[in-house]
Structures are given as structure tokens and as C-alpha cells.
Amino acid sequence: MQRDVIVKWFYPWPPEKVWECLTDSELLGQWLMKNDFRPEVGHKFTFRSTPKPGFKWNGIVYCEVLEIVPLQKITFSWRGGPEDGVVNLDTTVTWLLQQKNGGTELVLEHRGFRGMKNFMASLIMEKGWKKMLAGRFTLLLQKMSV
Description:
Elements: E1 2-11, H1 15-23, H2 25-31, E2 34-35, E3 44-48, E4 60-69, E5 73-80, E6 89-100, E7 103-114, H3 115-144
Antiparallel strand pairs: 1-7, 2-3, 3-4, 4-5, 5-6, 6-7
Helix pairs in contact: 1-2
């Protein structure tokens, strides 16, 4: 069993602004999680948040930048687990940007949720992605436009 999460949003801002929120470490930390991200293929980085032992997650997402097409696409691995060295979630996140109707269509593809435990994780994460993109991500774009 495998499940993928695909979320689409439209923002009334140019791709450059949306891209900046996805690729600037400080901005990324404001709407997603603290991180040491750099937009360089091969760069290994982490996202850090509050551990959730009940979900068997230590609060760290281990990532590596896999692909970048400036202003259009960025893909990175997304791995996590209950403790250092133990990975029970091994997925990829791709952000796709396309200029449309005076703004930007943003597509999130979070792929590779395998097995029943990861199926449940995908449902929780899909809800979280939708909430973050509608909430903190949008507010950050609004704040940057003032």
C-alpha cells in the first residue's frame, strides 16, 4: 500500500516571492520548522520541531536536496523516525511553481508513504500541509508584500 499527498494552492504573488518562502532558510523556519536548509543539490539538512513520542517521531526530519530548477521546482528527501538512526518514514517532497493568472500556482507533492503506519502519517501530514499553506505560508507572503 502506498499513498501520496498532493496539495495545490494559488497565491496572488509572483513566483519569485513564493520561491523565496520555500528556499530562504529563515523564511522557511517562520512558516514550517527551524532548519539549516540551503538550496543546493546534495545539501543535507534537518527540520526541527517538538518531538511527538506518541507518533513515534523525535521531532527531526532528515532531508537532502535532490533537485532544483530555480523558480519552478525543488525536491528533497523527507525522512524521520522515533530516534536518531531509526527511520520509519522515507518520503520525498517536491514543490512545483507555475506562473498563472497574475500569480503563482503552487503544488506540493509529498510522495512515498508506504504501509499502514505511513498511511496514517500521510493523513496527518496532509492535514498539516493544508493548514500551513493556508495559514502561516499565506500570512508570510502577505507580510512580505507590505
